[in-house]
Amino acid sequence: MWKTFASLFFAVAVAMLGIGIITPILPLYVKSFSASGLMIGIIMGAFSLSRGLLGPFVGRLSDRIGRKRFILAGLGIFAAVSLSYSLAGNVWQLVLVRILQGAASVMVTPIAQGYVGDMTPIGKEGRLMNLFYASMFIGTGLGPLLGGVLTDWLSYHAAFAGMGILSVLSLLMVAVTLPPDHGQIRKSPTHRQASIVPLRQIAKHDAVKAILAYVATRGFWRQGFNTFYPLFAVSALGWSASDVGYIMSGYFIAGGVFQIPFGYLADRWPRNPQIILGSFAAPLLMLLVPFMRSFAGVMVVVFSIGMLSA
After folding, report:
1. Is this model's pTM higher than 0.85 or not?
2. Which CATH number do you get for residue 173?
């Protein structure tokens, strides 16, 4: 189990590092096309819309066909998308690129998450799943820092190239180290037995409805921050792409680091109070961000938001 977990952990961390590279600079790059605020929102939102619409279908197919194949396909598309950003000639081409990137994303992180969930022993869900989430947060946390520096020192295109190189590296890691599953999930007394349950049946559970509502509402303020704060920081505060990268990295790294201790708490103490505390406190702190003018002040606030989001 641990060999497979380690393979997924490092592969996803590298893939998310590649995605994180473009987090602080993509809104600025889109703005260079003279895009309006609405168009920026459409371009950035196309990623999540594509991911949301394709998620259920890709997940079901991966259960039948095999998850490794989908992860490899997604990483391959990521590599191609990185080149497409530099080749895009107008905003609508960027919309198409974001749709493709969303499709690639749903083939990688959710599928890898399901892979880990299948092999997680009963009673250790919190600690192992949060440990896996740490790979995503740490990858996306270090990515903005790297992306901001590459943009300031070289160009936007250097950041996109970095995303492509890291996607290829992650693809090679998965191809070499992850054992094939062929759609078959192992069964053991300490693990969940694999079964394909209709989506309608899953959607009837109150817990699933609550989780979906939480994730949907969280997406509004998190994606709004990721999209428009870089523009605000550069235009209103006069910060560089590297400064924005530091802020975004602090936010994501805090979320990654605290995944591990909070995972242990989730296994030992009731989970609902922890979820309620984080889901209310994090967006309330986000209200302070537009009024903060000092770099240190913003860093403290976003670090706290990242910690509470864990």
Report:
1. no
2. 1.20.1250.20
